[in-house]
Amino acid sequence: MHLLGCFSLACSLLAAALLPGPRQAPAAASAFESGLDFSDAEPDAGEAKAYAGKDLEEQLRSVSSVDELMTVLYPEYWKMYKCQLRKGGWQHNREQPNPNTRTEETIKFAAAHYNAEILKSIDNEWRKTQCMPREVCIDVGKEFGAATNTFFKPPCVSVYRCGGCCNSEGLQCMNASTSYLSKTLFEITVPLSQGPKPVTISFANHTSCRCMSKLDVHRQVHSIIRRSLPATLPHCYRRPCTNRLKHCEQGLSFSEEVCRCVPSYWKRPHMN
């Protein structure tokens, strides 16, 4: 009997040694995996949505045309829309979604059914307001800082200067290249000692524009918009005058900046 009891005890001990123990508790397992940098936890959905929304906002703010706007919002549907327009017009689908259901598919369906005339009208207005050279009237006396007893006829000239809107609040419409136009005007000085005198003056004419950051604007070598003269360029950027005149008419003096005779009161503007 004693022998049988010892045998039973031995079997119990052997079974306990061979059989696997209880599974690790979920909390302990999670702590173990965390220690090894393994985790099945998903990223916060709200945080991911916030990042996605911010990225979309930046894209929307940077678009510069109707085509870019629709490409950002409805890329696949916009491709189909343009394809159908090239084929002769969009064929409206008979099966329209429930107007009371504001789902993502409903919005995409609406995007694919914009009226072509409306899109064209918006795009035309968009293009008109973009950063580009625009014809403006410049007051000659204010442009060159004429003496108070001197004025010009006509008092203004027509030139092109950069203007329009950029697609970001941090950008400004600036000139990328400039030419100089010579215009002949009457200069009149009072008290009148002689008749109106024809004078030829050079005016800055912006030929191309681009949207630039404020930092780039400060680095520009041209003084633009209201006063843009060749004298604002460093000497290393100026070409020597090849048509230097030895004599100028009375009241005029030769300018190395514009390589021509200019009114004697003309002064080089100060750089800010």
UniProtKB/TrEMBL annotation:
Biological classification of the source: Eukaryota, Metazoa, Chordata, Craniata, Vertebrata
Record-linked Gene3D superfamilies: Cystine-knot cytokines
Subunit composition and interactions: Homodimer; non-covalent and antiparallel. Interacts with FLT4/VEGFR3; the interaction is required for FLT4/VEGFR3 homodimarization and activation.
UniProt keywords, alphabetically: Angiogenesis, Cleavage on pair of basic residues, Developmental protein, Differentiation, Disulfide bond, Glycoprotein, Growth factor, Mitogen, Repeat, Secreted, Signal
Record-level GO cellular component terms: extracellular space; membrane
Function: Growth factor active in angiogenesis, and endothelial cell growth, stimulating their proliferation and migration and also has effects on the permeability of blood vessels. May function in angiogenesis of the venous and lymphatic vascular systems during embryogenesis, and also in the maintenance of differentiated lymphatic endothelium in adults. Binds and activates KDR/VEGFR2 and FLT4/VEGFR3 receptors.
Family to which the UniProt record says this protein belongs: Belongs to the PDGF/VEGF growth factor family.
Localization per record: Secreted
Signal in keyword set: yes
InterPro entries: Cystine-knot_cytokine, PD_growth_factor_CS, PDGF/VEGF_dom, PDGF/VEGF_growth_factor
Keyword Glycoprotein set for record: yes
GO biological process: cell differentiation; induction of positive chemotaxis; positive regulation of angiogenesis; positive regulation of cell division; positive regulation of endothelial cell proliferation; positive regulation of mast cell chemotaxis; response to hypoxia; sprouting angiogenesis
Signal peptide coordinates: 1-17
The name this protein goes by in its record: Vascular endothelial growth factor C
A Pfam family annotated for this UniProt entry: PDGF
GO MF terms, alphabetically ordered: chemoattractant activity; growth factor activity; vascular endothelial growth factor receptor 3 binding
Residue ranges of domain Platelet-derived growth factor (PDGF) family profile in the record: 117-216
